[in-house]
C-alpha cells in the first residue's frame, strides 16, 4: 500500500509512505512561473510535475499493481482577510493538486483532511518548525530535513501518516 500526503499550497509538499509508515520520498510542491498583466511574474503549482511525481513513484514500485494507492490532501481554504488575487491563487493550487490526485488514483481513493484535525492528533500548533521536528522524530533517517522550506514535505508526510494511523484497510 502506498499513501501520498499532500500539502497543496505553493510552499507545500508531497510525500509518499508505505504500509509500515516508512517515508519513501518527498518533494517540495513543484511550481512554475507564469506572466500576468504588466509583466508580473506569478508562481503557480506545476500540475504536470505533480502528475509526473505521483505517476513515476507509483510506477517505480514493482508491485504497484498489487498495492492500493491512497492520497490524503490537506483540506485548506482561503481566509476572509486574504486578498482576492491571493485567494484565487490558493484555490487554483488546491484545485490543480486535487484534480491530479483524483485522475492518478481515482476519486474514491482521495481523502481530504483539515489541518485542525491532523494537527490536533499530533498536538501541533501553528508554530513554524514544529512539523519538521515531529517528522524528524517519526521518520528519523528516512529523509533529511535540512531547510525551513522542507516544512511542506514534513507536513505532507505527517498527513499521510495520520491517514495511515486513523484508517483501517481491508486486505
Keywords:
171 residues, alpha/beta, five-stranded mixed sheet, two-stranded antiparallel sheet, 5 helices, 22% strand
Tell me briefly what this model is:
By secondary structure, the protein is of the alpha/beta class. Helices cover 40% and strands 22% of the residues.
Structural class category? alpha/beta
- The low-confidence parts are none
Over all CA atoms, what is the radius of gyration? 16 Å
Count of individual beta strands: 7
Question: What does this protein structure show overall?
Answer:
- The longest helix has 22 residues, at 84-105.
- The mean pLDDT is 83.
- The chain is 40% helix and 22% strand.
- Helix 1 (47-60) packs parallel to helix 2 (84-105) and helix 4 (130-139) crosses helix 5.
- It has helices at residues 47-60, 84-105, 115-121, 130-139, 151-166; strands at residues 2-7, 13-18, 23-28, 31-35, 41-45, 69-74, 110-113.
- The N and C termini lie close together (10 Å).
- It is of the alpha/beta class and 171 residues long.
- The strands form two sheets. The chain has a five-stranded mixed sheet with strand order 3-2-1-6-7. It has a two-stranded antiparallel sheet with strand order 4-5.
Task: Summarize the topology.
Layout: E1 2-7, E2 13-18, E3 23-28, E4 31-35, E5 41-45, H1 47-60, E6 69-74, H2 84-105, E7 110-113, H3 115-121, H4 130-139, H5 151-166
Parallel strand pairs: 1-6, 6-7
Antiparallel strand pairs: 1-2, 2-3, 4-5
Helix pairs in contact: 1-2, 4-5
